[in-house]
Each structure stands twice: as C-alpha cells, then as structure tokens.
Amino acid sequence: TSLLIATNNPGKRIEIQAILADLPLTLVLPAEAGLNLEVEETGGSYQENAVLKALAFSRASGLPSLADDSGLEVEALGGEPGVRSARYAPIPNATDADRRAYLLERLRSHPIPDGMPGWPARFRCVVALALPTGEIYLTEGTCPGYIITQERGQHGFGYDPIFYLPEYDQTMAELPPEVKNRISHRARALQAARPLLQRLLGS
Ligand code: ITT
To answer: Which positions in this protein are listed as binding Mg(2+) (predicted)?
Structure first.
C-alpha cells in the first residue's frame, strides 16, 4: 500500500518517514509522485488546513495522502503563533531563524512567570489522512515545553532550538531525533493515526 506524505517541509517529511518506518507502507514523496503542489492554507484551524492539504494531494495523486498541520502555541501570546507558525515574522522570505527571532522579540515585554525555566508553550500537530474515496480522518498530538531565549541544539527544524523540555534538560533541537520522534506532537498525532493506517493496510 502506498501513502503519499503531503508536505513540502523537509523537516516534517524526515520525521514522518522515521515515525512510520516500521509499517509495511510505501511512503511516497510529492516529488516522487511528480507533484509540485503549493496548497494555500486558507483555513483558520490546524484541522481545516490539514484537510485542505491532504485532500489536494490525494486528488492530484490518486493516492491515500497524509498531511500534517502544526504549530507552536505560546501562552503569554494568547496561543500565537499557532496556525500561523510557518508564516510568522512580517518579512518576505523569512527563515526559521527569522521566525525564532521575531517570536523572542514579541516575548520581550512579557516577564517569564516566577519559578519557570521560560515562557510556557506547546507544540500542536493535527494529522489528516485523506483516502481517494474522499474519506478523511483526523488525529492530534501535543507536546508541552518552554520557550527560552538562548538557542541550543542542531537537530530538528523550526522553533526546536528555543523549545526547552525540563524533563530532559534539553531543547527539542538537542534531543536525538529518535527521542524527538517518540515524544513530539507529531509522534503523538501519528501514533494516534496508527489504527487508521493499519485499517488502510488491511483493505
Ligand atoms: P507543509 O504545509 O508543506 O506541511 P509548513 O511548514 O508550511 O509545511 P505548517 O503550515 O503546518 O507547515 O507550519 C508548521 C510550522 O510550525 C513549521 O513551519 C514550524 O515553524 C512550526 N513547527 C511545527 N512542528 C514543529 C517542530 O516539530 N519543531 C519546530 N517547529 C515546528
């Protein structure tokens, strides 16, 4: 059974491939399916955007497609950047480093709560599985942590270097990838999707 990984983000792609590696699925990348598809994320929620992406890729490829819409939610900022995490920072062609700098800039006027290692935050991930029949399944995962000002670590992508996990005393970018891929929001959403994928394999 083939499953299209409906993302253009290489960081996500590598993690999804690793997390699903033990399933007897042939994971197909957009480029391998001859697809160069930019889906405009017009939805106001992770769920809506994940469905938009999974359906668009499934229609274009004729394959079952799995999309991930995810983001970082910082309590002091009322849950920002949230669904806008990939587009945060008001600069054209912003990089992940620009977005981290912009987030820290926004946090400057908010004191770190007493006794905490940083600003409380969580990563959130919604996974949508779209079948060629048009059926859609959604799962979700979250991972709590703290935003810190000092970047640490080289692994991962996005906000990982400033996302601190007290139980490991490491940032998400310092954790070995196999550990991130056990505990992350993405890992949890994909674990929750396993029964759906098993059913796909059985059919
Ligand atoms: P696709 O839509 O092609 O999948 P994208 O990067 O545009 O790629 P999203 O709209 O879901 O995807 O944005 C997710 C953003 O949230 C991502 O670009 C990062 O900035 C952040 N993010 C999500 N998961 C993360 C993780 O595991 N570590 C660090 N940052 C993450």
So the answer is: 40, 69
